[in-house]
Amino acid sequence: MADKSDFSYGSHLQLDKLLSAQAPVSDRHDELLFIIQHQTSELWFRLVLAETDAARSRLKAGNLRGALKSLKRVAVVLEHLVQSWEVLRQLDPVDFLSFRGDLGEASGFQSWQYRLLEFALGNRDRDMLGAHRDWPEAVAQLEAELSRPSLYQECLIVLNARIGTEIPLEVLMPGGAHQRQQAVLDAWAVVYRDREGQAELYDLAEQLIEIEDRFRCWRFNHVTTVERVIGAKEGTGGTSGVHYLRRMLEVVLFPELWEVRTVL
């Protein structure tokens, strides 16, 4: 057994590294808020990704109860991320503009963990790899994610096996973003019409809805926070800022789960 005589709260959490990881590039007081907001978001993304991976592994093993536990944790963390925008909103336009020019080309658009989360949930666009071309290790992880089934595909594989429907094979294989499929809608309709008999699948479907609901809220709060702080200015790093973020509000991760409510 390893010697833990010098093991402590600080060493366990590596607080020396954590608390020295804030390196402002300006002399403006408000930059610290900006840095910590984004660093903590990245830590929460790290946990969401770990739980999403755990859910997929448990789905493959037929452990739906275990998968649901991980997915519930994902939803709770996403809710925390939704609320975290309240902190960034403490930056008024003048505060942010006082150090924005010092950030150069740095942009939240370059968050490879956020991109990895989108890919894992099923919003897959290979063109987005270009934003990370200067970080080969990140591109490698993103490429690896594109080569495996998304969370939704793993759920559909379980759905297909349990319901005995004929979801087309190409829908279940790694590839691009998921597109609405009638066979998938029909399969979920079977689950929703037999909620008691298909309780685990029903709970799985509702948990996916909970995740997408909170993810949409996160995106919406992102848009409104950016607009509140910089208006319609171009984003750092050359993105179109709020205009790009508004387009992302139209993305639907699990289209059949939203449509099934209409056809019931």
Protein model, in words:
The mean pLDDT is 92. The protein has one domain (29-263): Up-down Bundle (Methane Monooxygenase Hydroxylase, Chain G, domain 1), CATH 1.20.58.480. The longest helix has 32 residues, at 199-230. It is an all-alpha fold. It has 13 helices and no strands. The chain has helices at 9-12, 15-18, 31-60, 64-88, 93-100, 112-121, 136-146, 151-163, 169-172, 182-193, 199-230, 242-248, 255-263. α3 packs parallel to α8, α8 crosses α10 and α11 runs antiparallel to α12 (242-248). The relative contact order is 0.12.
- Indicate the radius of gyration in whole angstroms: 21 Å
In CATH, what is the class?
A: Mainly Alpha
Task: Write down the overall geometry.
Answer: globular
Remind me, CATH topology? Methane Monooxygenase Hydroxylase, Chain G, domain 1
In terms of structural class, how would the helical and strand content be classed?
mainly alpha
Short description:
Helices cover 64% and strands 0% of the residues. It has 264 residues and is mainly α. Helix 3 packs parallel to helix 8, helix 6 runs parallel beside helix 7 and helix 8 packs across helix 10.
Protein topology:
Blueprint: H1 9-12, H2 15-18, H3 31-60, H4 64-88, H5 93-100, H6 112-121, H7 136-146, H8 151-163, H9 169-172, H10 182-193, H11 199-230, H12 242-248, H13 255-263
Helix pairs in contact: 3-4, 3-6, 3-8, 4-11, 6-7, 8-10, 10-13, 11-12
Which key features would you list for this structure?
264 residues; mainly alpha; Methane Monooxygenase Hydroxylase, Chain G, domain 1; 0% strand; globular
